[in-house]
Amino acid sequence: MVMVGALRRRIVCQMLWLALACPITLGAQTGHDVAVVVHPDVPIDSLTTADLRRLVLGDRGFWPGSLRVTLLLRAPVAYERDVVLKNICEMTEAQFRQHWIAKVFRADTAVAPKIVYSSEMAADLVNRMAGAITFIDAAQVGRGMRVVKIDGRMPGDKGYTLH
Amino acid sequence: MTDYSHSRFIVRATLVSILCLGPALSAAAQQPAPPAHPTPPDDQTMREAQPEYPSLHIAGFGDVDFAAVNRNDGARGFTEGQFTLHMVSALSPRIAFFGEVTFTPRVDAGTGSPAATGFNAEVERAIIRFDQSDALKVSFGRYHTPINWWNTAFHHGQWLQTSISRPEMVQFGGRFIPVHFVGALVEGVAPSGGWNINYQAGIGNGRGNVISRAGDAGDNNDVPALLFNVFAKPDRLFGLQVGASAYSDRITTIGRPDYNERIVAGHAVWQHENPEVIAEIADVRHTPVGTSVTTSSLAYYVQAAYRLPAPARLWKPYYRFEHIDIDSNDVVFADVPNLDVSIFGVRYDISTYVCIKTEGRIRRRAANLPWTNGWFSQIAFTF
User: pTM, whole model, 2 decimals?
Assistant: First the structure.
């Protein structure tokens, strides 16, 4: 009887663990999508992957209405940066650095991307710097943030490419 | 309560918690998280992120070279390469200055009276630009002439280019293509859907009394140099750039009649590293003013490189073939030699900002001249 009780207690504990773990697992899957967040005044709702590539590589420096783009990128090793470099730029970290050194050296632009060191910093600055765009783990996107669609899809949608 | 009834209670409580809390937690997980910043923003972070004007940034490029050649054709042994400083400064959200200064070691250092200095200092580029939008940017100053892709992609940054040497058709100090341009440039991206068609149109002084130099101190005739460059970077083929350029000028040199110069050039570049392919061609035509006798000189090169896959990812072998064919009746290019050269080498990226390159060159200036072989090495870096 004692053994049966112990067995049941173990089963109960495992069920409790599963009950708590399932939502967390779901949340983690959603969180691995990276949201593209812009300043509330940026006059766009959707970008294509090609648009995003031009923005990240500095080939596009203005939003519609001649609002200057301010690119906020996470520092190297951050998950969001890895996703952007791999999925959007199709570059390694070294290639991306060389690209931007060359970009400034060619006089294509005077402003390199601004580095942000945390999602909190990215979220803080994107809402306060006119024309800013940044990349934030979708699980950390707050209510006041303006997330744009990429190729018509939001983070969490099937077929969303930034993850 | 017995052990059994206690366990049954726990099982029921667990099932209730799964049924009630599970969906609630799942829904919570899919709901947007609360605002990431309930706390007041960090004003110091904000201040640091805001641009300041002027915002001067300086970067540098340098290289150290070694050459071993079987004939006396250029420098031998160790040579100090160009010491290049690049300055960029945003002066306002829409105005920026770009500058490039080089220091080049002189072979005649210490000779003459007064004695020549050890290095030549040169303002390679000095550009002030006004950006209205992506479609319209206007600038003034001294440029690398944008009728050749290599000339405007790598400038004096040896570290940026895969090979040690520039193609001879755009060699610094060379004469085939006017490497520098002093004047004004209008550029931008034309509305073209996914084709990303860029344009550059310029007016300037053209070549100076010495045709390898730009007219820095003013135009030496009353016919301005005009240039137009257009290139596409299609979205569907990310990494591809194809373009064409046209350039016209009047060349005035001491002791010779004036010549009209017309240059037509084209390029196709695949900018990924596996593979990297660069191909350029230019036709330069000279016509004495008042006549219809035209000479045509042609130059082209094709370079291919391939970044090896891991674990040899730091290695990038390359090959380039160059050809220059000068019209024998071209008086303006009387001192410009023909060329056929094959260059094969490898680049090794020792760190993110330092690379070592080594390459062999087999070249011939004319069919009746012997081949020249040489082996060259270079450490190039940015700082």
Answer: 0.84
